[in-house]
Write a structure and sequence with these properties.
Blueprint lengths: L1 E4 L7 E2 L6 E6 L3 H9 L5 H8 L6 E4 L3 E11 L7 E11 L2 E6 L24 H34 L6 H33 L6 H67 L13 H22 L4
Helix pairs in contact: 3-4, 3-5, 4-5, 5-6
Length: 310
């Protein structure tokens, strides 16, 4: 989907591009990719780089254009893991500024793409726009990290009494999400540092404060992700032992039940043999043997409970 706006405020949409406009592209079709090449003069290799889900964040400058790529978090339970990261490219030339992402995200929603609170604010500062995107991305990382922590706490409760691998697989998915987040946040921090160094002499006071906020939020998200990852790594080893111990307890209980049931089975087998047993003519032989079997089984249960085998 390709939409054109008058400025980065994202309030006034345009049917055709004008100089200094903002073009927001999400999940581009082949026709939209060709339009980016022909109408907006975006090199094809840059488009393919941004659409590559494994592309690393970076900053590039050329004589006629500049490119900033950051990685943003995306929630997608159908993707195998609940959260992962994708590249978001901000391409700028003399004609327009273009944001390009391979999947929809909450950083730049399709319906309300504006990242500014003022309803009619017209912003044309590309650095301010990039910093706003970085700050929103860092806040989204923090929100997803809290959700990951809540899901992990729920899985922990299930793991305490589980003997299956399903909960352990869910923990592995959470760990995979944290690895994605840590790698992306570290790379985003380098991009912000490079932008700060490149604009050190020309950056305004507002952008300086915004840059500091973006760095702080990014660092906080990185620290939280690392802490959660360290905790989960320890829990994975602990809960693997818990699952094994729970399975051993179940096998112990089943073995104890088998031994208790074997006692009346043995007695019934002895008195069910086709040989004289001195009780074949007694009228109370059957109820007597039955009561004796039950008594021996109860005694066995008492001994097992006393020794804490059952």
């Amino acid at each position: 989907m390709l939409r054109i706006y008058q400025s980065f405020a994202g309030r006034i949409s345009l049917p055709e591009p004008v100089n200094g406009c903002w073009v927001n592209v999400t999940q581009p079709s082949p026709d939209e990719i060709n339009r980016l090449q022909t109408e907006f003069n975006v090199p094809r290799e840059i488009i393919l780089d941004i659409l590559d889900l494994d592309e690393r964040p970076r900053v590039e400058y050329d004589r006629d254009w500049s490119l900033v790529i950051i990685r943003i978090p995306v929630a997608s339970p159908e993707n195998g893991v609940p959260y992962y990261t994708v590249p978001l490219g901000i391409f700028t030339n003399k004609q327009a500024s273009i944001t390009l992402c391979a999947v929809p995200s909450e950083v730049i929603p399709l319906e309300q793409p504006s990242i500014y609170r003022e309803p009619y604010q017209q912003v044309n500062d590309i650095l301010n726009f990039i910093l706003k995107l970085s700050l929103r991305s860092a806040n989204l990382y923090l929100r997803y990290l809290k959700q990951i922590n809540q899901q992990t706490a729920r899985i922990e409760k299930d793991l305490e009494k589980s003997i299956r691998n399903r909960e352990l697989n869910e923990m592995l998915k959470m760990e995979k999400c944290l690895v994605f987040f840590i790698t992306s946040l570290k790379a985003n921090e380098l991009v912000l540092a490079k932008l700060h160094n490149a604009k050190r002499n020309s950056i305004s006071d507002i952008n300086e404060d915004l840059m500091e906020d973006a760095l702080i939020e990014n660092k906080q998200a990185l620290q939280m992700a690392q802490i959660y990852s360290d905790i989960q790594s320890g829990m994975m080893d602990a809960f693997a032992s818990v699952i094994s111990n729970n399975l051993n307890l179940v096998m112990k209980q089943l073995t104890s039940i088998s031994i208790i049931l074997m006692i009346p089975t043995l007695i019934a087998s002895l008195y069910g043999m086709n040989v004289p047993n001195y009780f074949e003519h007694a009228s109370l032989a059957f109820p007597g043997i039955l009561l004796f079997s039950v008594f021996i089984a109860v005694v066995g249960v008492f001994i097992f409970r006393k020794r804490k085998w059952f």
